[in-house]
Each structure stands twice: as structure tokens, then as C-alpha cells.
Known about the structure:
With 341 residues, the chain is an alpha/beta fold. It folds into two domains: 2-150 and 292-340, Medium-chain alcohol dehydrogenases, catalytic domain (Quinone Oxidoreductase, Chain A, domain 1, Alpha-Beta Complex), CATH 3.90.180; 155-288, Rossmann fold (3-Layer(aba) Sandwich). The chain is built from twelve helices and 16 strands. Strands 3, 5, 6, 7, 8, 15 and 16 form a seven-stranded mixed sheet that branches. It has a six-stranded parallel sheet with strand order 11-10-9-12-13-14, sandwiched between helices. It has a three-stranded antiparallel sheet with strand order 2-1-4, with no helix packed on it. The longest helix has 12 residues, at 151-162. It is globular. The chain starts with a strand and ends with a strand.
Amino acid sequence: MKAVRLHAYDNKPTIDDVPEPTAKGPLDVVVQIGGAGVCRTDLHIIEGQWAPKTGVSLPYTIGHENAGWVREVGAAVTNVAPGDTVILHPTPTCGLCRACRAGDDMHCENNLFPGIDTDGGMAEYLLTSARACVKLDSSTRPEDVAALADAGITAYHAVRKAVPLLYPGTVCVVAGAGGLGHIGIQCLTALTATTIVVIDKNPEALALAEQLGAHRTIVADGKHGDAVMDLTNGNGAEVVLDFVAEQGAQQDGFAMTRRNGSHFIIGYGSNIDIPTIDIISTERNVVGNLVGTYNDLVELMVLAQAGKVTLHTKTYPLDSALDAIDDLDNGRIRGRGILVP
């Protein structure tokens, strides 16, 4: 089969012919990929940022946002069958450790993360597990929902955590209206009554944000922090959802929160430098977010199939994966790029 493989960090991946995976374990599931999202994390993987954390051996297949059709199942699989349409939670988990028992899938002691620390889904087929499969209506096109498997669940997870803080009369700033941010705006609209203020440097992204439910939009021109302060009578926002968190945005996010406010960091790529006295004297919070739980994905799919969360995507054939990666890296994709084998 064809697969997008990384052979060396800071080098472009290549499209190689590799053996198709097979279901060897009792809970294994082989999925024929119908859509694989192209994510900024893929750029960070290529740059080598994840290498110290994963220790993955090169070469391997990237791609961690996947949906498709079940092709083969292990002997103990009962929740899906060959032919079923599925979206995949990013991490196959054990189901037995304390984190799994608590529904905290991302911190399973024995999980894998296809596309991060083992072969992923920028390929014709992917090996995953029964626990990762969310069965969808047979009419669903995998390419239409694949990005919900990571971009969607990550945005939803952050919003879901912030919901108790976003009662009527509050302000939530969304930094970045791209692949994750445009989903976060819709989740905020579906789950809260907060005032949504969106910041982005791209006018097209801001126009899309308004269509999706943003109440106010601000161009990221270096004065956007002052604009947020003006909108909030000098107080700042109760919540900042930072979908960028690099190139200075991570510093702006904390500065735009009010006393006892919360800066949710969802994007990544740069360090954040905050004097500890500024944290304790204002009781502000910095909250990390790592993808989301299986139940987050199930809830998000309910919103998606009700039409409350939609994806803005650009599709590419698998053979054009390098074009998709380049377009993402150079800001030519509004929303999410999707590879379709």
C-alpha cells in the first residue's frame, strides 16, 4: 500500500510502498482510510519536536486524524464489523489502567498514538483497536469528518473543560481561527452563552469566524491585546483559548486574561514565560490540553451529525500529501487539509 513516511527529521516525508497491516491481536481493527487530516503537529513531527518524547524509530508513517471503513477485525471485536464506517479516537488504549477506568483516555499507561509513536493513517490502511473505533452512520463520508478525530476532539475537549467558567456575561477570546479554532468557535456556540471574541491575522479566517458565530473579531496586528482590554473595560477575558501558542501568541494569551481568569493552551510550538508572582497575585490559571477522551469524541460526533459543528476542508489525493503539508506550512489552507487515498 501507499503511505506517507518520515525517514529523517527536518526532511520532507516520502510516499512509499509498504506492506498492508493485518489484525493479529484479538482486539485489533484494520481500517481502510477514507480521510486523513493534515495537522500542524505533523509539521512539528517533521521538525523533530516530538522525537525526545516518543522515541519513535524512523522511518514511520505519519497521520493521526483518521476515519474510514473497517476492513478486518480481531477475534474478540464485537463493537464494529467489516464494512462499518468509523472515526478513530487517536489513541488505542488498554481499558484496564486507572486512567482508562476514569475515562481519561489520553493518559492511559499503555496507550499507543498512531502517527506520533507508531505507524499512522496517511496511508491506505491503518491498524488500530476496537476501543478507538466510533461507529458512524453508513452515509457519512470519512473525508468529511476525519479532522474531528484530532482537531475537532482537541477543540471540543478544551471548550468542554472551560464550560463552567463561561456563564452568561463572560468573554471568551479565541486566538487563531484556523484548523482547530474554527471548530472551537462552533463548540462554544453550541455549549455556552459567552461572548466570543476571535483574533487572527488573516481577514479570511476572521470572516469565517463571524459566519460560525463569533460576536467580535480582531485583527492580530500587535494591538489586539489592547483591543481586548477595551472590549472588557480593562479587565480582560474570563477565558482565552489559545489555538496558536507560538510566535508570541502564548504570551499574549496570558496577558489578555482577567484576574482569576484561565489561559487554555491548545496550540504549541514556543515557550511561555510568566513571572510566578503574576500568577499567584492574580490567581490566573494556565491550563494544558491534550487531545480529548473517547467520550469527548462521541459527544462531538453528536454535534456534528446534528449540523452544529461543520468542517471547512480542502481535500488532496494521497499522492499529493507533500503539497498539502506545504500548503499548511505556508498558510494556504483555510480550515483543514484532508488526504483521501
